[in-house]
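Checklist before submission:
- one chain only
- standard amino acids only
- sequence pasted in full

Submission:
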Amino acid sequence: MKKLAIAALMTTFALSAGCSTMGMDSERTMVVEGQPMNVKVVNIPSFEVEIAPRKAVCDLTATDGTTVEAECLQYRQTHQKNYTTLNGNIQGFTYEPNHRYVLDVRQEAVTAEGSNVVQPVWILNEVISKTAE
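Returned file contents:
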């Protein structure tokens, strides 16, 4: 049921954006509940996410292509049970450890420098709540 809901959500996001990046590679592979899924990166004007009070260890790809270990924010949509690591930051958001946040963010599809690959960038619209843990 969760996979169906996530797939429906991803499809809704993909259908709502149209083709604003013609000629660009706007698809990315994401792991959703342990399964790789191809999704289209689109502009989303507003959605809510919950940010966990602690960061998780994750692997990021450096500019030279090597993999480095880092600490990443953990997020989930308010109806989800498990957190996912966010490989990047939320522009305009300052994270404080040991606080749980509910944020209203937007996603913009941005072309990576030097390539035709479109990447999602999250930008803070509003901090809905901040609770000390």
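Reviewer check: The helical segments are 2-17.
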